[in-house]
Amino acid sequence: MSRNTKIAVGGVAVGLILLIWLPWWAALLIMVGVPAAAYLTLDPSQRRRLRRVARKEIGR
Q1: What is the DSSP track for 12-38?
Q2: Under a CB-based contact definition with an 8 Å cutoff, are residues 15 and 31 in contact?
Q3: pTM (2 d.p.)
Q4: Chain-wide mean pLDDT for the chain?
Q5: Are 36 and 48 in contact (CB under 8 A)?
């Protein structure tokens, strides 16, 4: 498995565990809030680089 696939599988596993232990709204808040907070901590040059890489991957 590639590195990104391992990360995706781990994220799904953590999400399922959160849904079992927490109410659905709390699990959803964590699953959306953590990546959003991580994105907001990047400086502007890192955000531009991340957007550029994401566009290349989807074929733009």
Answers
A1: HHHHHHHHHHS-HHHHHHHHHHHHHHH
A2: yes
A3: 0.59
A4: 85
A5: no
